[in-house]
Amino acid sequence: MTDDAAIAELEGLEQERCRAISSGDWDALGNLLRDDYSHSHSTGVVQDKATYLKFIAGRPRTTTRPAVRVRVYGSAAIMNGRQVNTFEDGSRPPVENEVIQVWINAESGWRMAAFQSTRAEQDAH
Questions:
Q1: In sequence order, which residues have a C-beta less than 8 Å from that of residue 114 and are 6 or more positions away?
Q2: Is residue 70 part of a domain?
Q3: Tag placement on the chain: N or C end, fewer CB within 10 Å?
Q4: Which domain holds residue 30?
């Protein structure tokens, strides 16, 4: 697989991840994550796959990624860019984070191994 093909596939998987979160499709989301998945929130809380899936299921949101950058290194890839979470209950304004993800291509195909978010700096202008 060429890097361009891998990048296109990963961008599609990221769109699927956002769709799964936004529609509450927890099975689809779980299938995109490796069993050893680690999710680091912008608050510093770190969760394993099972804890993360339970956590996010209790906080409905719409998740979008305006643009991502993907770099492929053989069977590993790094994806980064802005992510916006809009909470359905309106309890808080949309949250914008800069996100970096690690994807691994193994026997089951590309799956996300790690996710780290940092609160995005707001434009001071």
A1: 37, 38, 39, 40, 101, 102
A2: yes
A3: C
A4: 3-119
AA letter at 98: E
Q: Judging by beta carbons within 10 Å of its beta carbon (0-12, 13-18, 19+), is residue 123 exposed, middle or buried?
A: exposed
Nearest to 111 by CA among 2, 16, 45: 16
Q: Look at the chain and count its residues.
A: 125
Q: Evaluate whether residue 56 is within a structural domain.
A: yes
Block mean pLDDT (10 aa), the chain, length 125:
92 98 97 98 96 95 95 97 90 91 96 95 54
Strand ranges in the chain using DSSP code E only, listed in sequence order: 33-40, 46-48, 61-64, 68-73, 76-87, 95-106, 109-119
Domain CATH number, residue 20: 3.10.450.50
